[in-house]
């Protein structure tokens, strides 16, 4: 089903007070309870074409611009000139401006409508006010990229009979310029009400301020407020589009420019529609919307993703804690939800540490650590992850502090600890929650008598548990893997990854009995 954006256009009749612009904020405060209070709609709107130009301002005498009895009249006379009343002679600047307004390349602008008498009447283009910036625009352009549009319903629309303007031009039906004004949008309960029907409290405020205003004139105008597809929020649109009673998908993970949905089965028939709305509502930050097709099963922990909307590229750049990581979501593992955990882990390290990241992926832990610690050894089995890991080291200018390896975790542990050149490793991170505990046996016998003076590293190993007592369960797995019971393990719940399934982090100093064990792996 295609998304019909026009079906979300809604038009509301409202009333507005046209007030002098210099009073609009005062009046906005005084009339607060009577003004339109809709989300994302400002209740002050500009009126096109009545702004005073700074150039004109300088021509005015120092007294109040809006002194209708004197200055404003004189100003109008100066603008409209002697030929239209008893005004003074126009200054050269104003005279040129007047001429420019009277002619254009096609002839007299002022009497252009005379020509129309002999031609069929074209549909009139109407100037409108965008409630956000007051720009003039043409009605047919509005809609696609608009959020909301405020149109003043003109007298012409109200009274078809008095169409003097269509014969002699706009100038002949509008009043003379009377100073810059603003529209204060009134609460919807005042729509289509006459001035007399306004509550006394509003009238009292207007009367009080009317004296201060030069125009001493407030006008009640009818308006049309149009709200477009862009106005409505994601959940409001999805509520309309999806079948009644269906849970509205709201949360999604973002990885750079990619929104990563995790749709339920019931959503799948509507997946493209949902993705389109998510894309529309999260642009420009989001450029691609994907859905996870299947649970993660493979060794590299990559996700099976289906691109539902937007551009198809799954290569993106994520900024995390001031560091930049390039990621190809189709080929490597990335989880933005672990950002807090990575920070917590990092807070355990000091500048004297040497860190070994056994399952480094594209490097979020290794590279963050490298900014803080003395040195990092980072490894991953996935050649593509290693490729991005190397790029990310360079991207963050940390390549001198990180050594990158591409091997199986167990072999990496054995190699790095056997290496004579390896600096003394103080911290080991094992973030492969499904199986990391099962790699712990690789630490058995990593040190020989020659290494006696070496520091015993602290190990951080992650795991999942669905048990009733997840901490106890994971603790048991760690002990079994190390074939050692007498050592202290700090156990911490990281986050609930699914109902009843916890991710945990166990940390402990590698027991001496394990590090110097005579045998290697028991398995
Ligand atoms: C859960 S991800 C964690 C990556 C990284 N630490 C992070 O936070 O984004 C686990 C990583 O281990 C890697 N991996 C899986 N099996 C491995 C193995 N036997 N040896 C080394 N790395 C392995 C995967 O390629 C993946 O990048």
Automatic annotation (TrEMBL):
<feature type="compositionally biased region" description="Basic and acidic residues">
    <location>
        <begin position="135"/>
        <end position="144"/>
    </location>
</feature>
<feature type="binding site">
    <location>
        <position position="431"/>
    </location>
    <ligand>
        <name>S-adenosyl-L-methionine</name>
    </ligand>
</feature>
<feature type="binding site">
    <location>
        <begin position="408"/>
        <end position="409"/>
    </location>
    <ligand>
        <name>S-adenosyl-L-methionine</name>
    </ligand>
</feature>
<keyword id="KW-0496">Mitochondrion</keyword>
<comment type="function">
    <text>Specifically methylates the N1 position of guanosine-37 in various cytoplasmic and mitochondrial tRNAs. Methylation is not dependent on the nature of the nucleoside 5' of the target nucleoside. This is the first step in the biosynthesis of wybutosine (yW), a modified base adjacent to the anticodon of tRNAs and required for accurate decoding.</text>
</comment>
<dbReference type="GO" id="GO:0005759">
    <property type="term" value="C:mitochondrial matrix"/>
</dbReference>
<keyword id="KW-0808">Transferase</keyword>
<feature type="binding site">
    <location>
        <position position="342"/>
    </location>
    <ligand>
        <name>S-adenosyl-L-methionine</name>
    </ligand>
</feature>
<feature type="region of interest" description="Disordered">
    <location>
        <begin position="120"/>
        <end position="144"/>
    </location>
</feature>
<comment type="subunit">
    <text>Monomer.</text>
</comment>
<feature type="domain" description="SAM-dependent methyltransferase TRM5/TYW2-type">
    <location>
        <begin position="252"/>
        <end position="512"/>
    </location>
</feature>
<keyword id="KW-0489">Methyltransferase</keyword>
<keyword id="KW-0949">S-adenosyl-L-methionine</keyword>
<dbReference type="GO" id="GO:0052906">
    <property type="term" value="F:tRNA (guanine(37)-N1)-methyltransferase activity"/>
</dbReference>
<comment type="similarity">
    <text>Belongs to the TRM5 / TYW2 family.</text>
</comment>
<dbReference type="Pfam" id="PF25133">
    <property type="entry name" value="TYW2_N_2"/>
</dbReference>
<protein>
    <recommendedName>
        <fullName>tRNA (guanine(37)-N1)-methyltransferase</fullName>
        <ecNumber>2.1.1.228</ecNumber>
    </recommendedName>
</protein>
<dbReference type="InterPro" id="IPR025792">
    <property type="entry name" value="tRNA_Gua_MeTrfase_euk"/>
</dbReference>
<dbReference type="InterPro" id="IPR056744">
    <property type="entry name" value="TRM5/TYW2-like_N"/>
</dbReference>
<dbReference type="InterPro" id="IPR030382">
    <property type="entry name" value="MeTrfase_TRM5/TYW2"/>
</dbReference>
<dbReference type="Pfam" id="PF02475">
    <property type="entry name" value="TRM5-TYW2_MTfase"/>
</dbReference>
<keyword id="KW-0819">tRNA processing</keyword>
<keyword id="KW-0539">Nucleus</keyword>
<dbReference type="InterPro" id="IPR029063">
    <property type="entry name" value="SAM-dependent_MTases_sf"/>
</dbReference>
<feature type="binding site">
    <location>
        <begin position="380"/>
        <end position="381"/>
    </location>
    <ligand>
        <name>S-adenosyl-L-methionine</name>
    </ligand>
</feature>
<comment type="similarity">
    <text>Belongs to the class I-like SAM-binding methyltransferase superfamily. TRM5/TYW2 family.</text>
</comment>
<keyword id="KW-0963">Cytoplasm</keyword>
<dbReference type="GO" id="GO:0070901">
    <property type="term" value="P:mitochondrial tRNA methylation"/>
</dbReference>
<dbReference type="InterPro" id="IPR056743">
    <property type="entry name" value="TRM5-TYW2-like_MTfase"/>
</dbReference>
<dbReference type="GO" id="GO:0005634">
    <property type="term" value="C:nucleus"/>
</dbReference>
